[in-house]
Design a protein that fits this description.
Blueprint lengths: L4 E6 L6 H17 L3 H4 E6 L5 H11 L4 E4 L16 H6 L4 E4 L2 H6 L4 H13 L3 E6 L3 H5 L3 H12 L9 E5 L13 H18 L7 E5 L4 H8 L6 E4 L6 H9 L3
Main location: cytoplasm
Keywords: Cytoplasm, Gluconeogenesis, Glycolysis, Isomerase
Family: Belongs to the triosephosphate isomerase family.
């Protein structure tokens, strides 16, 4: 398994053409000023669809060690699907990865595990790495159902043919996303160990799949979270919209 942590920024529906260029430039500049970061981390940012080419252009111009990804893709590769973005289109504009099954997609767009799996299959066929998100609600955790829910999501969302080389899992407890709440280190350790166990049972190379933690990750808690066994990086929301905070999280990797 790679020893590098994946520091992934989910920019969600934020930014303007000017601001995303500035943010990408600031991140690249920060990484270049501390070259040791590249020995410890892989960097990925996921802007809105319409901003991907602008961020890709900044990366190409600066020859920066930053990768760009999408926040979703279609279950189809082409056709009369108004508003959809196909995985091959993301690949064509320079993406190397795509976030799938984020709780905001599951909640606000009614995406099931089966839809996530179909999208992931399309992404893998297009040559994209998938970041498949799983996580329980506060009510489900209170009821003691968190492991049942996460296993159900893993079983239903991982497509046939998934490998450590083309898939990452992100554990994001829904109650911690954008709320300022963070799961305790003990809770994170227990869930990541459980996810690892499921992956090893499901996949020949399950021990090599990177598992990210997401849910109010910030500079203040990054070192503690990223030191937990089987936490192989972070999927960062709000803190990734500020270059200094995103870079501070990366610098917390030992």
């Amino acid at each position: 398994m790679t020893t590098k942590k994946l520091i992934a920024g989910n920019w969600k529906m934020h930014g303007t053409l000017v601001s995303v260029r500035q943010l990408a430039e600031a991140v690249i500049d920060g990484v270049e000023k501390d070259s040791s970061l590249l020995d410890r981390c892989d960097f990925l940012v996921c802007p809105t669809f319409i901003h991907i080419p602008a961020v890709r252009a900044v990366i190409d111009h600066n020859r920066g060690a930053l990768r760009v990804g999408g926040q979703d893709c279609s279950t189809h590769d082409t056709g009369a699907f108004t508003g959809d973005i196909a995985a091959p289109m993301l690949k064509d504009v320079g993406c190397s990865a795509v976030i799938l099954g984020h709780s905001e997609r599951r909640q606000h767009h009614g995406e099931s595990d089966q839809i996530v799996a179909a999208k992931a299959g399309q992404a893998h066929q297009a040559g994209l790495m998938t970041i498949i998100c799983v996580g329980e609600t506060e009510g489900q955790r209170t009821a003691g159902q968190e492991k049942y829910i996460v296993k159900q999501q893993l079983d239903g969302s991982i497509p046939a043919g998934a490998m450590a080389a083309n898939m990452v899992i992100a554990y994001e407890p829904v109650w911690a996303i954008g709320t300022g709440k963070t799961a305790t280190p003990a809770d994170v350790a227990a869930m990541h160990a459980f996810i690892r166990q499921i992956l090893v049972e499901k996949m020949a190379d399950g021990a090599g799949v990177r598992i990210l933690y997401g849910g109010s990750v910030k500079p203040e808690n990054a070192a503690e979270l990223l030191a937990i066994p089987d936490v192989d990086g972070a999927l960062i929301g709000g803190a990734s919209l500020k270059a200094d905070q995103y870079l501070a999280i990366a610098k917390a990797v030992q």
